[in-house]
Predict the 3D structure of the following.
Amino acid sequence: MKPGLKVALVVVLAFIVGASGFIGGFVVARVGTPIGVPKPVQVIESASTVGAHVDEVDRMLKTEALVPPNDTSATAGAVQGLLDANGDKYATYFDKKHYDFFSEDMAGEFGGIGVLLGEKDGNSYIVDVYKDTPAYKAGIKVGDVFSAIAGVTRKKWTTQEVVKRVRGEAGTRVELTMIRPGKSGVAGKPYTVKVTRAMIQYPNLDSKMMAGKVGYIRLGQFNAQATDDITKAIKSLEKKGAKSFILDLRDNPGGALDQAISVSSLFQPSGVVVRVDERGKPEIEHRTSLHKITDAPLVILINGNSASASEIVGGALQDYGRAVLVGEKSFGKGSVQTIKELSFGGAVKFTIAHYLTPKSRVINGKGLTPDIVVKMDQAKQADEKTDTQLKRALAEAQKAQ
């Protein structure tokens, strides 16, 4: 597997602009995940009407239902129901157990099997398998989908359901039945493996010199170290002779808003990076941090899994003509989430704003269209010989010198 698709996650300034995160030993290419949350703690209380109605049903079920709900499941259902009521597809309730997982994940290692998950039409699939992890050794491949986990079979598994059942203590085993897509998208025969969970460690950035004095940088996630990591990579590659750069943001699901701004600032000297439209407030302009470190030509690679913070960076640098975008249309997540802790444990995540590019282009639901469209099967990223998107980006970076 080609290196570089390594992801970490962080929340800064209470904003989560990512579309994915580490959850229970997995990277989930759909849901944002915090390393911490802002204080003070926000407490969700029963509103006079809603709370009374929920209490009424709760009492009824506990006294008359054949199988009355326990407080834990009832709370989870009620809170998630409130979040779903607004039609916010990024709103999520994290119970205390899974919220505690996040702190472990953000420490840089976690108990899991070492895969990147994506989700389409309510069903999760393998986006990447980290080298030398339990999943890699078990033979799990990119594109495989889940059929059964620990003896439980379902037609569809959401990322959250997969994480909940597969995450566990390092050294324990979990049985997985996977289905590998065949040619023309036809599902192949299921296969079953027993995978021993392990502590997964991951880097977030990969860099190297490529032919024609081109410096290549692949960023997995806009975490707290993203700007520092890219800065170090640029300086190192320039010392090795780099005259232009490729910033590979394919499959990068986002991360922290302030990191998207500061990464953009490394390449763009001044101006608005992103516009944020928040409920009941004037539009906010987030400008560059004036920390530009290179004028070298830049090509940015994006695909359908490039989301949120990736789209902020790509959109800003495309608007200014600072970078050429190569690849396929991005995910189209132009919304900002916040995380609020709950007094009874756990947290909720919900949308508080939308963002626009410097030229006020709408990204949410539309995505970024590359300057040069190169369609490609995602699995071909595993080998530079078949990675036609990278080949085209390399040609453009060489030409721009």
Q: What stands out?
A: DSSP finds nine helices and 21 strands in the chain.
